[in-house]
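Weekly sync, protein design subgroup
Attendees: M.S., D.O., the rotation student, P.L. (late)

Item 1: inverse folding check
M.S. brought a backbone from last month's batch and wanted to see whether the design step gives back something sensible before we order anything. D.O. pointed out we never logged the input encoding, so this time it goes straight into the notes. Structure tokens as presented (305 positions):
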């Protein structure tokens, strides 16, 4: 049974996410990551103390099944022989541990032929009698569908304010203030705050620009460190944007009040869909989303063109 998991990943993000899932399955203290900065990773991303060898792979075009299947087969063909090539290195790393499984861990698995290929290559390696492989050694292919329980637990983990978010620099803010998008923003702010002075409106505009940059950085950090939560946040934002585009922001309330209403709706939606994410993180995303809408025009006021 397939589940609605994110299919497209870049290699580094997938490796980080896979590491978390593997830690949740085997226990964090039972998983050893194999760094690749010095002489590569010897064909392993991480291994577990109960005898599993994991290698991660994120296909570039998961929507193209033949291309993806070919790439996964090639990955196994390249990396399984590394168990022999790096036998001495791996034996030292494993330190007497007997391993019974080599697992190619991918975001998706759509083609049974990949399983047959990986198992055949695994049988070839098993026949070599490597010192750190057990007699029942097998090579497998697994995907997110094999880690549904771990994924469900991951969604419920609290994400505190310690998410590493890049703060907007003055240079970034100044650069973005000169773009056409901010010209659009400034026009809307002049209607939302018609009684404030030019200098006051400039300060308000700068705050929106900072929020736009910080919101984007927050979503980028969430996508990198907690991609499943990022996907949920993105779905919430997209749904609210679609509602806004369909119904518009028209009404008897003043523009400033409509801005507050839109901000509250975003925060409320995110709070419901991401109840375990720190309020400060949700606030940064909400404020950034509102700024983005004002610049791109999903949020419009009467008389805007």
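Designed sequence read out in the meeting:
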């Amino acid at each position: 049974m397939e589940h609605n998991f994110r299919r497209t990943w870049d290699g580094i993000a997938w490796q980080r996410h896979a590491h978390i899932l593997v830690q949740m399955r085997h226990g964090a203290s039972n998983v050893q990551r194999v760094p690749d900065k010095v002489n590569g990773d010897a064909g392993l991303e991480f291994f577990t103390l109960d005898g599993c060898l994991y290698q991660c792979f994120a296909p570039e075009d998961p929507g193209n099944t033949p291309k993806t299947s070919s790439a996964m087969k090639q990955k196994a063909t390249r990396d399984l022989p590394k168990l022999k090539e790096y036998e001495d290195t791996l034996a030292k790393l494993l330190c007497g541990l007997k391993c019974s499984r080599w697992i190619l861990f991918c975001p998706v698995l759509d083609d049974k032929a990949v399983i047959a290929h990986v198992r055949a290559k695994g049988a070839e390696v098993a026949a070599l009698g490597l010192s750190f492989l057990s007699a029942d050694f097998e090579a497998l292919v697994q995907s997110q569908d094999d880690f549904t329980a771990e994924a469900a637990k991951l969604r419920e983990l609290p994400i505190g304010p310690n998410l590493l978010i890049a703060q907007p620099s003055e240079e970034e803010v100044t650069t973005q203030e000169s773009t056409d998008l901010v010209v659009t923003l400034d026009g809307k702010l002049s209607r939302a705050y018609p009684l404030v002075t030019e200098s006051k409106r400039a300060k308000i505009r700068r705050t929106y620009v900072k929020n736009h940059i910080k919101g984007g950085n927050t979503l980028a950090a969430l996508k990198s460190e907690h991609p499943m939560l990022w996907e949920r946040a993105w779905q919430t934002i997209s749904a609210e944007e679609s509602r806004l585009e369909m119904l518009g922001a028209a009404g008897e309330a003043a523009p400033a009040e409509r801005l507050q209403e839109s901000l509250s709706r975003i925060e409320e939606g995110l709070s419901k869909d991401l109840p375990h994410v720190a309020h400060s993180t949700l606030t940064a995303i909400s404020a950034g989303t509102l700024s983005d809408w004002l610049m791109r025009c999903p949020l419009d006021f009467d008389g805007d063109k």
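Discussion: The mean pLDDT is 86. Residues 159-296 form one domain.
Action: P.L. to compare against the previous round before Friday.
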